[in-house]
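Human: We require from you a protein record containing the residue sequence and its fold in token form, and nothing else.

Assistant:
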Amino acid sequence: MKSYWIWNYGDYEIFHSNRVNARRQEFGVDYPAFWKYYDVDRNVRFYAEIETEIDGNIKLFLNGKGYILVDEQRYGSETVIFLKKGKHTLQISVVNLTGLPAAYIESDVCSTNENWYTFENGVKRKVGWEAHYDGPETNPEVFPFAYEKKCPVSIKKQDEGILYEFEKEIFGFLHINGVKEYENIHVSYGESLEEALDVENSILFEDVSGENSYKLRQRAFRYIYLTGTENPNVYAELEYLPIEYNGSFRCDDEDVNKIWDMCAYTLHLNMREVLTEAIKRDRWLWGGDAYQAFKFNNYLFFDKEIVRRSTIALRGKEPFDEHINTITDYSLYWVIGLYEYYITYGDIEFIKNIYDKAVSLMEFCETREDEKGFIVQKNNDWIFIDWSEIDKDGAVCAEQMLYIAANQTMVELSKLVGANPAVYQKKSNKLIELTNKFFWKEEKGAYIDCYESGKNHISRHANIFAILYEIASEDQKTKIIENVLENDEITKITTPYFEGFELDVMGKIGRFDYIENMIKTYWKGMLDLGATTVWEEYNPSLIGTQHYEMYGNKYGKSLCHAWGASPIYLLGKYYLGVKPTSSGYETFEVKPYLGGFKFIDGVVPIKDGSVSVKMSKDKLSVIATRSGGKLVWEDKSYELEANKEFNLNI
């Protein structure tokens, strides 16, 4: 019978994300993440009741130490146990003090699978499992990556060393062969050419000697600079998540096509055990970055599993007594993202499993409220929002917008699981009233950042959230568009991260021209500077190596940041025009927009299918591979039959 390794639900995700968050290194020093690490349950018991139709044998394998009880009789692991035909109760006990406690049964009459369960605080819980771990030899502590050899596209002598350039940034192992044992080799890594050559300031480097060949630790790089050796054989072993590109986009503008490809590759490179960020520098799981990247994933890979893994890992376990990544906004994004996950994938079982953790997170947020009920910074909390000029002296308006949205999300989640939503609805209503009272300035037609400082400073961020999460009234929305979004005197966004939020709002209000222009200027600006991946921040006013500076380091800026891959999402949602109108794409809308393009041609993955859209100035063609779709064109709508091409002369 088909068996899988099983473990305590959520522990696989926590185990692997902890490894991810502890791998960072800078300037030769280990730099693990600074936030709380949750641990796996070290002593786990799995339970099952089975009925076999024939006599058979079972054999238990453990990732740890323990035993199995078969009808109260104890047996050790890797022992062949005879099982008579009939009903049996099974209990597996496994302890692992350093790794991931897990169990696997090899048998012709029973199996370890999703039907096993554990108990958490007296509550019956399903076990965790992954389809890849389907044999006793597959170790659940080893993540199933794929590997591909990559050779440099350019090799040249440079001063006292050798410079290797790869086609684009990669993540993986660097191999150095054919060197002498006595050679003292210095390896300087760079996302940029300048960083690799600047051996005094490159963030990642290694010094090796004593061997004829080396396989160095996993790192991200595009350029390698070696000194101390003369003629080595150098290549890279790319490590990546094997996943199918289900979405696509092409148009008549080759720059836009290159930008889409750059965004897709950036996202893929950061998709690993969980959705990481800054593949060279951090490689950590950041809640806000992941919240944005989940949307991009939905329009490219439609990989539910990486969203699920990352969501579980971010939340961790009880007690929840520190914000996700210590950042207030990231805790709130986590809650908001749950309903967006449900709408996209229709996975009600996951929502039921995670709901209690959303409740306790919101209870923690209440401990961070001031006397008015605004969520504020306390203890070591970090109010982030964005790298921008935001007045954060007291309660911050943008944070209240997210708090409102999180409470509104809890209303919907509570309805889904059959819980009472009243407390969240009441809080949401109160917060909207208070936010309008203290932060809305009618004479400015906008929300200010902070009312306590007296500065009355206006940034785009709170106002963007007010429209994005449908908090602003129609009258307020009109004024925000005029006084903030279309006002060049308001400080511009300089991170691709928050530009994604702004452009989502522009799509929401029908300003597709703005989206198109930003893609063709802002993202193209990075492309023109030789980028093969999207940067953490891009400021067009900077020159030379100024582009790479951040956090007080000459090359501190990440040049491969998944939070900047929003063109995938924007072009899929607003140009190909595909979005769900009920959970799991049971119903969905296709509302294409050509904009300034001569043609667009792309595919949007949806649950159990895909939608293909081709459009030119005089013709529109749509094929959906599942039913439930509706094509909207001008003032008419057309039902889409599964697997039947719909053509329209326009």
Q: What stands out?
A: The chain has a mean pLDDT of 97. Residues 397-417 form the longest helix (21 residues).
